[in-house]
Amino acid sequence: MSSPRNTSKTDPLLLLADAMGPGGPSASIERMEAQGQREIVNSTVLPSRLNYGTEDELTALGFKLGDKVAGDPLFRHAELPTGWKREGSDHAMWSYLVDELGRRRVSVFYKAAFYDRDAFLNVNTVYGYIGECISEKRTPVLDEVWATRKAVHAAAVGQIAQCAKYLGMYDDRDDEYGRERAAELRSEIAAAQALIDSLTAQDGAA
Fold first, then answer.
1. For residue 15, is pLDDT > 80?
2. Looking at the record's lineage, which domain of life comes first (predicted)?
3. CA distance 19 to 16
4. What does the alpha-carbon distance between residue 29 and residue 128 come to, in Å, rounded to a whole number?
5. What average pLDDT does the structure give for the chain?
6. If you average pLDDT over residues 125-153, what whole number do you get?
């Protein structure tokens, strides 16, 4: 069993020495947080705290949740469902648990900075998954259990409503950021509508 190093217990002299290295204190913290992500991705533990979702949901997905790590209750021992894997990201504090179909089903937050160490899990919803696919221009992967056609259709409708809610606000702004954000929202609305149209066409052909 492997667990991330408890950075809050790092020798102050080692912290000082690293902070005096290349980039100074800020770069030292960035290195610590990047190392923290590598450690959690290669570990056999998960954060003990759930920010969104429940232990029952994790168990239903096939997780085997164990005891908290001795001396570091921020984490608990856990086994992933069959076929799932851990995946890093380009953000030092976030990684993901990806299911057998390559979908990010759980987000893992770990801030390894010694002075403010924290960790938690977010269990992804179909709505969140579809929003992620739309914003990252990825084709969603459907199944018959979680991301069903009905659930994906409802999520796409919800994404359109959410984008439309903010579009008016950015349309009223007369600055570059407002124009860019409005264009992004219109693009996301179009992508969500295209997904709905595709599902409707497939239903009609069935």
1. no
2. Bacteria
3. 5
4. 30
5. 91
6. 96
Taking the C-alpha atoms of residue 4 and residue 12, their distance in angstroms, rounded to an integer, is 18
Burial of 16 (0-12, 13-18, 19+ CB in 10 A): exposed
Percent of the chain with pLDDT over 70: 95
Do 113 and 32 contact (CB within 8 A), yes or no? yes
pTM of the predicted protein model: 0.87
Among the listed residues 141, 134, 205, 196, the one whose alpha carbon sits nearest the alpha carbon of residue 163:
134
How is the beta sheet containing 94-98 ordered, strand by strand?
Answer: 50-52, 118-123, 104-111, 94-98, 85-87
Beta-carbon-side half-sphere exposure of residue 204 (alpha carbons within 13 Å): 6
Helix axes 176-205, 126-135, angle to 10 degrees: 120
Instruction: Indicate the range of 108-117, 145-154, 189-198 predicted with least confidence.
Output: 108-117
Q: Hey, how many other C-beta atoms are within 10 angstroms of the C-beta on 188? A: 19
Report the C-alpha gap between 186 and 137 in whole angstroms: 13
Asked whether the predicted pLDDT for residue 24 surpasses 70, the reply is: yes
Beta bridge partners of 76: 46, 68
The residue with greater pLDDT, 202 or 121, is 121
What's the CA gap between 89 and 39, in Å, rounded?
A: 13
